[in-house]
C-alpha cells in the first residue's frame, strides 16, 4: 500500500492534470486558486492536500471548501482527485529558472508571484510546458 502524504497547500486541475500550489499560510494559495477557477480550472483541495501515488485529493472534511478572503469559507464544485503534473511555489520568480523538482514528490516545480496580475496565466502556461503541450527554449522546462 502506498504512503499517503499530507501537504499544506491547495490543488487545482485542468483536464485532469493537477497543479499543487505551495507556500506558507497567507501566501495567496486560495486566492490564486480562485482566479484559476475563473479560468477553467477545477478545485481539488484547499488548505490540505492528500497525495498518494502522485494523485491529489482533499481530506473528506474539507472537500469542496475554499477560503475566500473577505467573504469566508465557501462550498464549491470540485473534482475528487487529479494526477499531479506541476508544483507551484508562491514567491518572487526568477527570470530564467533552472529545472527544479519538489524534493519529496518529484514534481516539476516553478515559482510564481501570487500578486502578479499574470499569475493565473503563468500557472496555466507552466502546466502546458510541464505536459509538453507548449515547447520551451529556455527556462524550467527547456531541454
3D architecture notes:
The chain starts with a strand and ends in a 13-residue tail after the last helix. It has helices at 29-37, 119-130; strands at 5-14, 17-22, 42-45, 48-52, 55-57, 65-68, 72-75, 81-90, 109-112. Strand 6 and strand 7 (72-75) form a beta hairpin. The strands form 2 sheets. The protein has a 5-stranded mixed beta barrel. Strands 6-7 form a two-stranded antiparallel sheet. The protein is globular. It has one domain (5-130): Rossmann fold (3-Layer(aba) Sandwich). With 143 residues, the protein is α+β, with helices and mostly antiparallel strands. 15% of the residues lie in helices and 35% in strands. Helix 1 (29-37) crosses helix 2. The relative contact order is 0.20.
Beta-strand residue fraction = 25-35%
Output mean pLDDT. Answer: 95
Q: Which superfamily, in CATH terms, is the homologous superfamily?
A: P-loop containing nucleotide triphosphate hydrolases
Question: How many individual β-strands?
Answer: 9
The SSE order reads EEHEEEEEEEH
Helical percent range?
10-25%
Number of helices: 2
What CATH first level would be assigned?
Answer: Alpha Beta
CATH topology name: Rossmann fold
End-to-end separation: 34 Å
User: CATH architecture, please?
Assistant: 3-Layer(aba) Sandwich
Q: Which structural category fits the helices and strands?
A: alpha+beta
In total, the number of domains comes to 1
Shape type: globular
Q: Which stretches are poorly predicted, pLDDT < 50 over at least 5 residues?
A: none
